[in-house]
Amino acid sequence: MTTTPGNTEAIDAxxxxxxxxxxxxxxxxxxxxxLLIRTCDDCKRAHWYPRAVCPLCGSDRLSxxxxxxxxxxxxxxxxxxxxxxxxxxxxxxxxxxxxxxxIVDAVPETLRIGQTVVVxxxxxxxxxxxxxxxxxxxx
Length: 139
Ligand SMILES: [Zn+2]
What we know:
Layout: H1 5-12, H2 15-19, H3 24-31, E1 36-40, E2 46-47, E3 62-66, E4 70-79, E5 86-93, E6 98-103, E7 116-123, E8 129-135
Antiparallel strand pairs: 1-2, 1-3, 4-5, 4-7, 5-6, 7-8
Helix pairs in contact: 1-3
The chain binds zinc ion.
């Protein structure tokens, strides 16, 4: 894995990352626009959120693996009284796990269950790059 020194320094200075060092690799990749998911070396299945033990088979032999960054909109809810409006969603990744995130760059009224969405990394309030999802242009 290649990382730039700037990314590494910012990640290591982040108290949230420091509190959960087992997820440092995830945040380093996120800073580079890559989505990683925790995958079990024994049952070969991916899960979300990252855990120390596979929730599907109980193994503690886990690795980070690259995700496609594509998924399907499983459920969503738009908070219309916030400014800007925000859409909380569950996205089922192509690799199987369903993750909670927010939908960005979309008109909420045009969203539909099952449509294809793609990951888009945007900075959180703390500056950490976070995975959000946006509709696939032709999805
Ligand atoms: Zn497993």
